[in-house]
TrEMBL record:
Organism from which the protein derives: Loxostege sticticalis (Beet webworm moth)
Keyword Acetylation annotated: yes
PROSITE patterns with a match to the protein in the record: MYST_HAT (PS51726)
Gene Ontology CC: chromatin; nucleus; polytene chromosome interband; protein-containing complex
Family membership: Belongs to the MYST (SAS/MOZ) family.
Location(s), subcellular: Nucleus
Active site: 371 (proton donor/acceptor)
The protein's name in its UniProt record: histone acetyltransferase
PANTHER family linked to this entry: HISTONE ACETYLTRANSFERASE, HISTONE ACETYLTRANSFERASE KAT5
Top enzyme category: transferase
Region described as Disordered: spans on this chain: 78-123, 160-184
UniProt GO MF annotations: chromatin binding; protein-lysine-acetyltransferase activity; zinc ion binding
Amino acid sequence: MNENDEELTTFCDSAASLVEGCRLPVRMQGGDDWPLAEIISIKESRGQRGYYVHYVDFNKRLDEWVGESWLDTRKVQFPRRDGAPTGGTTTPKKTHIGSGGMPSEPRQLVSRPASPTLTHDTSSLVNGGAVLAAALQKKMNRKRKANSLDIEVAEPIPAAESETGDTIASGAATPTARPRQSGSLVAHGHDDLVTRMKNIEMIELGRHRIRPWYFAPYPQEMVNLPCIYICEFCLKYRKSKKCLERHLIKCKLKHPPGNEIYRKGSISFFEIDGRKNKCYAQNLCLLAKLFLDHKTLYYDTDPFLFYVMTEFDSRGFHIVGYFSKEKESTEDYNVACILTLPPYQRKGYGKLLIEFSYELSKFEGKTGSPEKPLSDLGLLSYRSYWAQTILDILMHSKPVGDNEKPIITINEICELTSIKKEDVISTLQNLNLINYYKGQYIISVNRQHEKAMEKRMLRIDPKCLHWTPKDWSKRAKCV
Ligand code: ACO
Ligand code: ZN
């Protein structure tokens, strides 16, 4: 090993000698854990140093500013002397010690990457996510129980079908996905210091105050403020509450722009054309970027449709989440980006958005799949949706003719659900449902899965969807 390649692990008596790129145990907020963290940036204000840290095995949304007392300086790994990254992660190249506060970037088009990042940090979900991820894997791998219902698959299963966008199980990604040539939020493959750090402290959106998870390229004058104020209907942003109040006097919107194409109870969906409502679409992308890490923001929203889900009350239609969709996808993507705003997360809205996206695909008579890479939470949600939807089909399939057992083909599952074939196969494999028995593939469904189905209360009612798919290829030719 070259001398330059060595990492320097040393005792350092004070935090003063710490530099960016150092790794050391740091106390995580809201707990007594001291995971290994990397110092991304250091700032000094009134004689006090603040450290922006990334917990090495955790998702970036947990990155935070900490004070000196949160650092365990007894064992520090200094960055390599050649300036290369410590322990394989990117070490910032620039130093930002000083009074400037959190660095940020002016509004700009972010340069297009050569290839997207394909890491899914599923080991580090919020709320003890490592445990959750392990539990999920266990759930997926659960062995067939005695009281199972056997269904024959009248189609061979490819031996080593790669799971789309899935690196949970294997831990290694295959770089198959390529970024679109034009997009509103495009998968990115590089991290510079600026975009590695959260730049917005807090947003106020309607009655919610939300702490952002990631960097978003809001204009310079919006960063370093205690809070930015966003109109919940048109998504325009303002520096202060006063400015927003002035805006609200003029802003007459009480729902997103575009057509309301679905309404059931208090839930509505609005379809917004990224070309016709460019300002709204761009502001939606900016807002979404605060919670989406693996995408880079572009301002060309023309090729996209945006489906915004709202909840209605006497004050209007409040945004809950959305997904974007390419008007024409050469790769059969039916979702580009998907988001449930944090105050609404873990209540079933994510799977409702996913269900809606497949309902649109059913209307189009196509199968579809989400754009890759998926985030950790995206993968969890899709896996859960796919598993429940496919199990539902399997449990309700009936024996045909003289057959004792129901027979269903993979293609039939695809047709019924609009889920793309690779995703159906990977789901069956993940659930450990496929077995080879007497020369044929058998799917064995555990009756306990019925319980899991009962939990899903929020469902899309296709009767409430008033929508006709457009042929965008023809439209493009007309223009
Ligand atoms: N930890 C563990 N499990 C979670 C978490 C979490 N923080 N959040 C959701 N889940 C699980 C739920 O338990 C549920 O599974 P289950 O029903 O089997 O128990 C499943 O994920 C879906 O839960 P929902 O409540 O339906 O989904 P939610 O409204 O929370 O939205 C979403 C999911 C959209 C992924 C949300 O977490 C989000 O917006 N995240 C930030 C943006 C993002 O990562 N989007 C996906 C990017 S991939 C792409 O754009 C194609
Ligand atoms: Zn407004």
